[in-house]
Amino acid sequence: MAFRQLWIILFVVGSLSAAPWDGRPGQPTSSPAHFLLHALVPEHNQVRDLTCLECRTAAGVIAAMMAEGATVEEIEDQVILDCVLLDLFPPDVCSGMVRLSGAEVLHVLNATKYDHETVCGWLLGGHCQHTQLDPWTLAVPGGKPAPSHPEPAQPTEGVVRILQLSDLHVDLLYDEGSAAHCEHPNCCRHAFGDPAPGELAAGHWGALANCDIPLHTLDDLLAHAALTNPDLVYVTGDLPPHDVWAQSHASNLLAINTTVQLIAKHFPDVPVLHALGNHASAPVNSFVVPTAYADGWSMTWLYDSLAAMWAPWLPEEALPDVRKGGYFSCSPKPGLRVISANMNYCNTLN
Ligand SMILES: *[C@@H]1O[C@H](CO)[C@@H](O)[C@H](O)[C@H]1NC(C)=O
Ligand SMILES: *[C@@H]1O[C@H](CO)[C@@H](O)[C@H](O)[C@H]1NC(C)=O
After folding, report:
1. Mind listing the UniProt keywords for this protein, alphabetically (predicted)?
2. CA of 47 to the centre of ligand 1 (A)
3. Separation of 66 CA from ligand 1 center, angstroms?
4. Residue 320 CA to chain centroid, in angstroms?
5. I want to staple 327 with a disulfide (CB 3.0 to 4.6 A). Which of 107, 149, 216, 342 is the partner?
6. Which atom number of ligand 1 is nearest to the Cα of residue 107?
7. Boundaries of CATH 3.60.21 in the chain?
8. For residue 215, which of 251, 252, 240, 180 has the smallest C-alpha distance?
9. How far from chain centre, in Å, is Cα 80?
10. pTM
């Protein structure tokens, strides 16, 4: 699950400063704050998805603040203040999320040549889709091959059995007995409180609530999975937990590496091939494209570390691609080529 709401909140609450709904003919007469409170904070303090109009309006207001010379910090301060005043999230979530993602989101909004309709189309997709992208020509080495439609081969003794693990989201701070429902977007941690009498507590193996799993649950799951003797293991990303407002490069790398090491322990003789999920980065969903490295942005903290973690199962020649863009291709078995694409470049938030 992507924390779309948290990431976008930066845009949303920015619109409170000067939302243009006021006094517009045909628009509700309520203040922008009431409008957004109603729209964003229905029961249970859950923020629903942003609408297309809200996204465009909020992006426009933030752009106007930047045009007036507001600094990144001033805009972040304003957004955090609004987020807290509106009680959208607990204060640590408001400030953590905005401080983590503010500089990048504002840099992109400030630098993009695309209008807000196009930007919101990328963010929200679906009904909001409206793109003005330039035509993009990609040279395919050797030219476009003629289509062929081979019949699927019937299973033979040569069948390869693949175990796919995805979205493990282990929470190293999982705390058995803590509240399984809490004010924070992610619970079952000591820091987020004890359950009220009669309320659900975090169980030993996990909780059917807003919680990730403890490490010992994954350990047990992998022990069982190893009994099936797969020929290959695919790990298709999203290993860190959902505490996206409280993450750092170090905390994400620790969660990823702990999980990678645990999988290696249970499958010592099996090739394990990884792919990136949107939660690998901190802030979440943030994957700078290689063409922006020249502007001072960098992904080396993540991609160099992943190259080191994935190296035991990859040939040396695959590693430069991991370091460059978090993708690779390799052939773990004769006749089989695996392409691990960094799908975050095309991510419209899952
Ligand atoms: C936006 O871009 C302008 C021009 O490059 C720059 O002076 C300004 O500092 C930027 N503002 C933010 C908030 O990044
Ligand atoms: C991952 O953890 C192992 C074992 O603790 C350690 O040796 C290794 O340096 C770590 N790798 C990275 C990239 O952090």
Report:
1. Disulfide bond, Glycoprotein, Glycosidase, Hydrolase, Signal
2. 30
3. 7
4. 24
5. 342
6. 14
7. 162-174+212-346
8. 240
9. 21
10. 0.81
Query: What angle (nearest 5°) sits at the alpha carbon of residue 287, between those of residues 285 and 288?
Result: 145
Residue 27 to residues 17, 20, 30, 33, 66: CA-CA distances in angstroms?
18, 10, 9, 14, 26
Q: What CA–CA distance (Å, rounded) separates 101 from 91?
A: 16
- The CATH code for residues 162-174+212-346 is 3.60.21
Task: Tell me if 350 sits within 8 A of 1, measured CB to CB.
Answer: yes
Residue 298 CA to ligand 1 center (angstroms) comes to 19
Ligand 2 proximal residues by C-beta, below 6 Å: 253, 257, 261, 305, 308-309
Q: Is 63 in the pocket of ligand 1 (CB under 6 A)?
A: no
Query: Ligand 1, atom 3: nearest CA belongs to which residue?
Result: 110
pLDDT per residue as tens digits for the range 129-161: 776 667 788 888 999 889 999 888 787 777 899
Each residue's pLDDT tens digit, 187-221: 999 999 999 999 999 999 999 998 999 999 999 99
CA 257 to centroid of ligand 2, rounded, Å: 6
CA of 164 relative to ligand 2 center, distance in Å: 23
